[in-house]
Design brief:
It contains 12 helices and 12 strands. It is α/β, with parallel strands linked by helices. Helix 4 packs across helix 5. It starts with 5 loop residues before the first helix and ends with a helix. The structure holds pyridoxal-5'-phosphate.
């Protein structure tokens, strides 16, 4: 009789909340869809896809536009079916079974998920009370554990806090492990190390079009690394991992960097407004509001569960994580409804 292996028996599929909420601020998506002009560009790109042929395995044209957008060499880029796929490929292919991977907590849950599927030895360093990464402590842990890989998000999901460039570089320089920096939200902040990839033999940076470009549905992410690591990633990924539609649409969008930057600016400004408002109404309510470097805000109310339930009753969904609530920036109208509800609930 066939038996599932132990690691699969208790595994459950990832299930995002599917209830019917009129305001969804739970998944860090962009509240903007591509502007009308870009929608036309997308439609044109889709028309030109050759459907009976396999797509370009290297997604060359797409990677060229991504390279231009970031002013880096296109030979350092690997496209993925969402950055999620790239996390899976990296963890499965750059580690040997039993190798140690260091993660931090709280952080993006998929690192530990893929790490355990790959049967790696996962060592998770808890952040302190203020939820910041302590760089020296992290370096110490990676070296003491003789870890093969360190992976964390910067800015961090779910804290929305970031580690400065110089601190990130110090970590990369001080460990004998592959360092994967997931910069899914770096478009909303300034401390990228994307230009430094060629200076290190142990650095991979991940980016995604899901959060900053309003294209979560498209499933498109990128890994940026030096030539050796990029060659290994290209060889290890499945050949046609990014479908022709995504390649065409992604290239068409990245060919309009000004529109992308405009929407990132709008999201960031809206985020700043919401942050100040929430900070204001949290005053004297035993609610901690964390600083934000991304398109979402983490708060620690007196009773997170009660606030989350209260919001749900008003048709507003945020992400409830233990003592915390992670609130994605919505449109101005959505944010006003959120603030009105928080005023009653906090
Ligand atoms: C959302 C998110 C991703 C996933 O991005 P996709 O490209 O949609 O797979 C990766 N890392 C972090 C930290 C995220 O928050």
């Amino acid at each position: 009789m066939y038996q599932l292996t132990e690691k699969l028996i208790n595994l459950v599929p990832y299930e995002p909340e599917t209830g019917d909420y009129k305001i969804r601020l739970d998944a860090n998506e962009s509240f903007l869809e591509p502007v009308k002009e870009l929608q036309d560009v997308i439609n044109m790109a889709v028309k030109q896809v050759t459907y009976n042929r396999y797509p370009d395995p290297k997604a060359t044209r797409l990677c060229n536009f991504f390279a231009q957008y970031h002013e880096i060499d296109s030979g350092l880029i690997t496209a993925g079916n969402g950055s999620d796929e790239l996390i899976s490929v990296i963890i499965n292919c750059f580690l040997k079974k039993g190798d140690t991977i260091v993660t931090v907590s709280p952080d993006f849950s998929m690192y530990n998920f893929y790490g355990s599927l790959a049967e790696s030895n996962i060592v998770t360093l808890s952040k302190n009370e203020n939820l910041q990464i302590n760089g020296d402590e992290l370096i110490h842990t990676v070296n003491e554990q003789q870890a093969a890989m360190l992976i964390f998000s910067n800015p961090c999901n779910p804290t929305s806090l970031g580690l400065k460039r110089k601190d990130v570089l110090k970590i990369i320089e001080s460990v004998n492990a592959l360092v994967v920096i997931d910069e899914a939200y770096m478009d909303f902040w300034t401390e990228t190390v994307i230009k430094e990839v060629t200076e290190y033999d142990n650095l991979i940076i991940l980016r995604t079009c899901s959060k900053m470009m309003g294209m979560a549905a498209m499933r498109l992410g990128f890994a940026v690394a030096n030539k050796t690591l990029t060659n290994a990633l290209q060889a290890a990924k499945s050949p046609y991992n990014v479908n022709a539609l995504t390649q065409a649409v992604g290239a068409a969008l990245l060919a309009h960097p000004d529109d992308i930057r405009d929407s990132v600016t709008l999201i960031t400004e809206t985020r700043n407004d919401l942050y100040l408002t929430i900070k204001d109404i949290a005053q004297g309510k035993q609610t901690k509001v964390f600083e934000t470097c991304a398109n979402f805000i983490l708060i620690k109310p007196r009773d997170a569960a009660a606030v989350s339930e209260g919001l749900k009753k008003e048709g507003i969904l945020v992400r409830h994580l233990g003592e915390y609530l992670r609130i994605t920036v919505g449109s101005p109208v959505e944010n006003r409804a959120l603030v009105a509800a928080l005023l009653r609930l906090l």
